[in-house]
Amino acid sequence: MAPSRALLSSTTTCTRQLRSLRAPIKPSQLRSISAYGYEQAKCLAFDKYGEPKDVLRLHSHSISPPHGDLVTVRFLASPINPADINQIQGVYPTKPSFTTSLSTSEPTAVGGNEGVAEVLSAGNKVKDVQKGDWVILKKQGFGTWRTHAQTTMENLVPIKNKDGLKPEQVGMVSVNPCTAYRMLKDFVDLQPGQWFVQNGANSGVGRAAIQLGKLWGYESINIVRKRDSGMEELKQDLQSLGADIVVTDEEFEKKDFRDRVKEATNGGREPIRLGLNCVGGSLVNSMAKHLAPDSHMVTYGAMSKQPVQLPTGLLIFKNISFDGFWVSRWSEQKPDEKERCVQEVLDLTREGKFKDMPMQPLTWNWETKQDQLVQAVQGTLEGFRSGKGIFVFGNEA
Ligand SMILES: NC(=O)c1ccc[n+]([C@@H]2O[C@H](COP(=O)([O-])OP(=O)(O)OC[C@H]3O[C@@H](n4cnc5c(N)ncnc54)[C@H](OP(=O)(O)O)[C@@H]3O)[C@@H](O)[C@H]2O)c1
């Protein structure tokens, strides 16, 4: 006899019941055993905007078996990106959906915007995926910091070939690499041998730009923030990805750096035609001064929270264009191109031509505590990190 919904909606009761049926069970196995097709799920959720440490709560709920066009997935890996924090703070343009569908008393949203999940089961009207397939999210705002979810295919993009790929690689493909890809291709028709200059070069986007740029024959000047230790290692790390010049912000601002640029660009005959701005502030003016006439400076991030002031001389006499790029808008406008971009980066990853960025993974098991999860999120906007935070889910199928 199938148990009542009331029983199934209580994670604790269900877990206790399962424990008595199967013994012995390790703590890490406690959840995720499906009973009668129901999935026990956890998510990191918030019902008001604020600092992650103040508003994020670990919430348990159950998911009924899918029917019709519904698909039940379990997450495999979900990164923690700077924009996710801004979204929880309420200062990001894409707002998450607040809903009571997860059996919360207040309308609640799940954190996280990017990730990869595995299909566990699907209703009889679902044709595009089957059990075991991997999917990523079509848009921002879905909420990816959760062990399981139930949705429809209009929110999902199937990964056509997952062979040779790790969940962490697929879970991080749709934001940073696609942003770097489009910024390198869509603003300037850069030719092999021509240069781009970027700040925040050790960010996820910056690392992707270095690698894609090198594959396409572009040369790059890469600016990173000066740090007290590990500077040489960082320079070598970025050079190993294909960075031609790596400098600190301080070195970049020095007068003699102009001579170095002149020499590297063959006296300007191999022009710097594109700038990528992750950081903001006065550094952007200095970068723009190195650009050839008719070049573009594309802003995609504001990590320093400092405004960019447009240098009028460069606008008037060199016709430098200052542009912005937002991958979310581009993805909504060009979903087919987005899929092609994702596919191409995954192919490069499989071939070993596109390397992972350094990560700080946190394994999210059934027994992982709220504090551990929230701490991983809260640290994201602190600078000088050794890698990007990413939840790697240990919930077995
Ligand atoms: N517009 C878009 O479509 C789009 C897409 C993706 C990302 N983004 C934005 O791009 C930025 C980077 O994202 P990501 O995922 O690549 O980041 P990430 O991998 O987490 O790296 C963060 C970067 O920001 C730097 N940083 C941190 N605090 C800073 C500060 N106070 N001043 C200057 N630099 C600072 C870090 O340098 P240190 O190592 O020196 O701390 C690091 O290079 C974020 O603002 C994000 O929202 C925008």
UniProtKB/TrEMBL annotation:
Enzyme Commission number(s): 1.3.1.104
Gene Ontology CC: mitochondrion
Reactions performed catalytically: a 2,3-saturated acyl-[ACP] + NADP(+) = a (2E)-enoyl-[ACP] + NADPH + H(+)
Family membership noted in the UniProt record: Belongs to the zinc-containing alcohol dehydrogenase family. Quinone oxidoreductase subfamily.
Top-level taxon of origin: Eukaryota
Name of protein: enoyl-[acyl-carrier-protein] reductase
Keyword Magnesium: no
Main location: mitochondrion
